[in-house]
Q: What sequence folds into this?
């Protein structure tokens, strides 16, 4: 598995600043060799991000009492943004849902992205977005090691259709980690 | 100024572009100014002569705007402009309204400049291309360093001192993928008025990153996306391209021949004077550029010529005839003419090799694409009734 910044996305952090490796004494920054080995431009897990105005839109929605009625409009705006960025072809059965997790670690058990359980069934995850107001991270199974990628608020990961094994990995913050899951439901 | 007046042989003057110095403290990749290393400046004697020349000419009827540009105006001290405004006032015996405007790169703005801007109600335009990753690609110091953080310090000075300003952002190939990031940049930095220029082909800047294949589609996507973002926020961000075009589109009557030429196509609606007193008309960018056909585009010098002698010169007549023929081609062949007014002569010359020509990249992007996108956005969705029956 390789990691890159998605085309047409400018993050503040470099891949080296984002990448940590799980060692016997916990999560540690990746070495320069590890970073070099994991960076690539195609067929990769790609760091993406939504613009601040969309992140603010989510926070306003979350603080209102209209999350259920306003979410469809928010999801449509996210889809339009992805379409503009031309990051992937939006599937007809596109779905989005927001999941919140407490500060407990989730990275002990990784799950396959191409057989994800969504609220409405099983499907394929295409991307995750950190909707929290703090940094979050996603743990991934890489070759012979477990890594995690630090994501600033509004940033996320886009995964190849071949799938990855992943889970949220909290950074020690006590508040809820809020993630937007973007995927497509399986039709079979 | 009524645009209908632009059918005249010369004037009335709407814009006087003055080059206080050709020098610029920056070295932007897409700059078209050929002489920006020169530290020459317009002398008091030439300033006197410029305003004497202008106010005594028949092209001044009402007020006009003086734009200090064509080099970085703020490399000269505040005192220079205090004196220049005094000189202009001394020649303005009719008490016409003369507005002063600065187009600046913003890096030298401080409290003293803000006091000057407020005292003289100067219209300030700051060139900033958006977030640092876009701006710093092209807008660099002479040592090649990015300048965005310095421009933003200047903008914050203006804001702290409550000096109204607008920004001009040059769109390059790279910008077209970042409509949301640009929108966030303006909103987050409390920038209320934006104008987009495209990276044009002019003079020594002989190639634009917007000239390649597939760019037009990307440009339309960018404009469409940016329009949606602005519209979603009830047009709270003022964008020159939308604000000027939407009313024209809504009011268009389709009568192409009645539509007056733009300032840049109207003789002496714009007069541009360089620091030595050489002057020209039509597109301000022509001043200082070289031409195999005309030599240069100066039609006279305020120290030695009158406006009457200049517009009777062979060079002016040739330029004027060529520009008029190009304008005629636009009027006859372009379905966008009634919303455009004939494009910009400088683009025609440097893209097509002649003023006597019509469509340019500037037309395709800055006119046709923007008009098409706005027209599409203003259409009601299919199935939505437009009459409140």
A:
């Amino acid at each position: 598995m390789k990691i890159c910044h998605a085309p047409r996305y400018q993050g503040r952090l470099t891949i080296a600043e984002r990448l940590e490796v799980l060692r016997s004494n916990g999560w540690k920054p990746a070495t320069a060799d590890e970073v070099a080995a994991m960076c690539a431009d195609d067929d990769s897990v790609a760091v993406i991000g939504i613009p601040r105005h969309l992140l603010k839109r989510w926070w306003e929605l979350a603080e209102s009492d209209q999350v259920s009625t306003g979410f469809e409009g928010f999801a449509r705006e996210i889809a339009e943004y992805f379409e503009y960025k031309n990051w992937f072809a939006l599937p007809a059965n596109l779905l989005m849902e927001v999941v919140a997790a407490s500060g407990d670690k989730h990275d002990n058990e990784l799950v396959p992205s191409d057989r994800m359980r969504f609220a409405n069934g099983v499907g394929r995850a295409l991307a995750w977005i950190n909707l929290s107001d703090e940094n979050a991270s996603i743990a991934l199974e890489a070759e012979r090691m477990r890594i995690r990628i630090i994501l600033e608020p509004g940033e996320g990961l886009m995964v190849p259709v071949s799938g990855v094994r992943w889970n949220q990995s909290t950074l020690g913050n006590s508040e809820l980690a809020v993630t937007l899951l973007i995927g497509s439901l399986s039709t079979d | 100024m009524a645009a209908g007046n632009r059918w005249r042989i010369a004037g009335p003057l709407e814009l006087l572009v003055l080059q206080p110095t050709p020098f610029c403290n920056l070295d932007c990749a897409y700059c078209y100014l050929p002489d920006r290393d020169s530290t020459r400046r317009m002398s008091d004697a030439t300033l006197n002569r410029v305003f004497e020349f202008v106010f005594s000419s028949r092209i001044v009827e009402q007020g006009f705007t003086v734009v200090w540009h064509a080099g970085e105006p703020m490399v000269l001290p505040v005192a220079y402009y205090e004196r220049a405004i005094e000189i202009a006032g001394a020649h303005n015996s009719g008490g016409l309204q003369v507005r002063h405007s600065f187009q600046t790169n913003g890096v030298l703005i401080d409290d003293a400049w803000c006091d000057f801007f407020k005292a003289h109600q100067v219209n300030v335009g700051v060139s900033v291309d958006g977030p640092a990753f876009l701006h710093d690609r092209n807008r660099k110091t002479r040592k090649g360093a990015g300048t965005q953080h310095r421009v933003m310090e200047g903008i914050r000075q203006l804001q702290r001192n409550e000096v109204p300003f607008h920004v001009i952002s040059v769109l390059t190939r790279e910008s077209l993928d970042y409509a949301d990031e640009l929108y966030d940049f303006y909103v987050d930095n409390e920038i209320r008025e934006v104008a987009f220029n495209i990276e044009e082909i002019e003079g020594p800047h002989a190639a634009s990153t917007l000239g390649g294949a597939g760019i037009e589609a990307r440009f339309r996507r960018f404009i469409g996306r940016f329009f949606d973002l602005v519209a979603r926020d009830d047009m709270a961000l003022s964008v020159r391209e939308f604000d000027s075009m939407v009313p024209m589109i809504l009011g268009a009557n389709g009568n192409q021949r009645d539509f007056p030429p733009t300032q840049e196509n109207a003789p002496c609606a714009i007069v541009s004077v360089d620091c030595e007193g050489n002057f020209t008309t039509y597109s301000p960018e022509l001043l200082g550029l070289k031409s195999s056909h005309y030599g240069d585009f100066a039609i006279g010098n305020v120290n030695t010529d009158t406006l009457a002698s200049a517009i009777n010169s062979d060079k002016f007549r040739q330029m004027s005839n060529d520009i008029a023929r190009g304008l005629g081609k636009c009027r006859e062949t372009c379905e966008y003419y009634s919303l455009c007014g004939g494009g910009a002569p400088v683009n025609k010359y440097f893209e097509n090799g002649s003023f006597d020509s019509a469509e340019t990249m500037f037309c395709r992007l800055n006119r046709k694409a923007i008009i098409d996108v706005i027209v599409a956005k203003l259409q009601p969705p299919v199935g939505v009734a437009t009459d409140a029956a």
Remarks:
- The longest helix of chain B spans residues 314-333.
